[in-house]
Amino acid sequence: MIKALAKAKDSNRLLDVKATQFTKDVNDLPNLVLTMARDGDVVITMGAGSISAVPGKLAGGTHA
To answer: Where are the domains of the chain?
Structure first.
């Protein structure tokens, strides 16, 4: 996944390079997202397993 994101960032300008981030630890996601999110942003999480706890952590956090 890391290699695919890096390749897409370099070859496909459809991705916003500044807004594309990766973390190996799902527990780091809430803080990472909250430092990037701004008023009016929509954050969508998809996946199975441990990712399902992220929306609740985001809803209780404050963004930059």
So the answer is: 23-64
